[in-house]
């Protein structure tokens, strides 16, 4: 009975094809390069315990109460200052509001802008969660190719020139999920120039931005924005805790105002208690020192995984070298289907999983890549997993 009653938009809302593979990650003998989780050993649990008890002692009444839909004023103020420091963006607290992670920002952006069959331009490949959020608003997609310098902006110009009804371009410029690559400075500027020229918005989704462990930090695309075309999404998930479900939107105040109305309709506000925790954590401790520890650990693990790949993977396999974030993107010869070989041999024989590339494309998926996460496994498991996987890949890459 139910399917007939569901709204037509539900036809586009489907579980991801990788769900069943990822379910295998919970089996104790499986080595998972599949998830995108930060390393839980790096959560600042002791400090957060102290911060929590201070909040309860001094501000319990407020922290357990409803608050404003756009978020705790002191946290918005701190984030406005932090946007300048970490992204080169000048903004005021009224140009920031707090969301349930970056994920909610994607939903609200699509809800604000997308009528059925409007076009969203995404990178190819792109973040699965972005597609999940956008699909409910029934958009059409155009996709723009990627290389080691991020979105190919020449290809983007062709798309914008030839496609009516493009509403926004969705990009993950820093340590892309799933590719791990970073958009060059030149392309950031060109992307904005094209958005201005063709009158479209940009959704700059950058939850990994502060987890840079190599190379020079690049300014956010939003830092060059003179026409209020960029909606910037930040997140506490990778720098503090994903379980706190806190992120933020930085955008023109008129856009913030509308998105906050949509947020109020969806969930009233983010958890006051969690916003207090993030706010007081930043007040009582040095969050940059904490982020420094994350960077050191992820860099070590990234270097180790790439070294193991170099030693164990066959010629014919290649991978990206991320300067930050949590993922590298493995490319196999075109005739190999990464999902099929994982199901047939890599999971049953090597007890290893990764995320096959198929789900990262809104259309015409490429199947010969895989997203490999290095943040969660110990070096020993990385060594074991990559060597076992390499032995099987050698059978295919002949
Ligand atoms: C590219 C990208 N955007 C957004 C998110 C959403 O993160 P959160 O909602 O936890 O902030 C993620 C999470 O992994 C991501 O990889």
Describe the structure.
This protein is of the alpha/beta class and 398 residues long. It folds into 2 domains: 2-44 and 289-396, Aspartate Aminotransferase, domain 1 (Alpha-Beta Complex); 45-284, Aspartate Aminotransferase, domain 2. It contains 13 helices and 14 strands. The longest helix has 26 residues, at 287-312. The chain is globular, with a radius of gyration of 21 Å. The structure holds pyridoxal-5'-phosphate (PLP).
Spatial sequence of strands, sheet with the most strands: 2-9-8-7-6-3-4-5
Total individual domains: 2
Classified in CATH, the superfamily of the largest domain is: Type I PLP-dependent aspartate aminotransferase-like (Major domain)
CATH class of the largest domain, anyone? Alpha Beta
Structural class, by secondary structure, is: alpha/beta
Q: List the total number of helices.
A: 13
Topology summary:
Layout: H1 2-5, H2 19-23, E1 31-32, H3 45-63, H4 73-87, E2 96-99, H5 101-113, E3 119-124, H6 128-135, E4 140-147, E5 150-151, H7 153-162, E6 166-171, H8 185-198, E7 201-205, E8 230-235, E9 247-250, H9 253-267, H10 272-284, H11 287-312, E10 318-319, E11 327-331, H12 338-350, E12 352-353, E13 355-356, E14 369-373, H13 379-396
Parallel strand pairs: 1-12, 3-4, 3-6, 6-7, 7-8
Antiparallel strand pairs: 2-9, 4-5, 8-9, 10-11, 11-14, 13-14
The chain binds pyridoxal-5'-phosphate.
């Amino acid at each position: 009975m139910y399917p007939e009653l569901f709204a037509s938009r539900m036809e586009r809302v489907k579980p991801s094809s990788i769900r069943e593979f990822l379910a295998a990650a919970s089996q104790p003998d499986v080595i998972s390069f599949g998830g995108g989780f930060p390393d839980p050993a790096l959560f600042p649990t002791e400090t957060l315990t102290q911060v929590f008890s201070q909040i309860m002692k001094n501000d319990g009444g407020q922290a357990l109460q409803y608050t404003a839909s756009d978020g705790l004023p002191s946290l918005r103020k701190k984030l406005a200052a932090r946007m300048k420091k970490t992204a080169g963006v000048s903004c005021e607290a009224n140009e920031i509001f707090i969301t349930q992670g970056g994920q909610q920002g994607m939903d609200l952006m699509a809800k604000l802008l997308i009528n059925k069959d409007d076009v969203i331009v995404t990178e190819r490949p792109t973040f699965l969660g972005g597609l999940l959020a956008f699909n409910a608003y029934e958009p059409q997609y155009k996709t723009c190719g990627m290389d080691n310098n991020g979105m190919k902006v020449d290809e983007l110009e062709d798309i914008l020139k030839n496609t009516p009804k493009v509403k926004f371009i969705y990009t993950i410029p820093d340590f892309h999920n799933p590719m791990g690559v970073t958009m060059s400075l030149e392309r950031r500027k060109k992307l904005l120039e094209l958005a201005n020229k063709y009158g479209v918005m940009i959704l700059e989704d950058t939850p990994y931005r502060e987890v840079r462990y190599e190379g020079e930090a690049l300014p956010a695309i939003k830092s060059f924005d003179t026409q209020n075309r960029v909606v910037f999404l930040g997140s506490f998930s990778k720098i503090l805790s994903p379980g706190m479900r806190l992120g933020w939107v930085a955008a023109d105040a008129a856009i913030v105002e509308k998105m906050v109305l949509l947020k109020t309709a969806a969930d009233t506000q983010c958890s006051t208690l969690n916003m207090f925790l993030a706010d007081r954590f930043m007040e009582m401790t040095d969050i940059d020192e904490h982020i420094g520890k994350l960077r050191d650990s992820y860099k070590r693990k990234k270097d180790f995984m790439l070294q193991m790949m170099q030693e164990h993977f066959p010629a014919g396999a290649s991978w990206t070298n991320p300067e930050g974030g949590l993922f590298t993107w493995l490319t196999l010869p075109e005739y190999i289907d990464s999902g099929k070989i994982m199901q047939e041999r890599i999971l049953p024989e090597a007890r290893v999983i990764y995320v096959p590339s198929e789900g990262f494309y809104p259309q015409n998926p490429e199947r010969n890549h895989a997203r490999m996460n290095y943040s969660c496994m110990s070096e020993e498991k990385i060594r074991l997993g990559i060597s076992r996987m390499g032995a099987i890949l050698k059978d295919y890459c002949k």
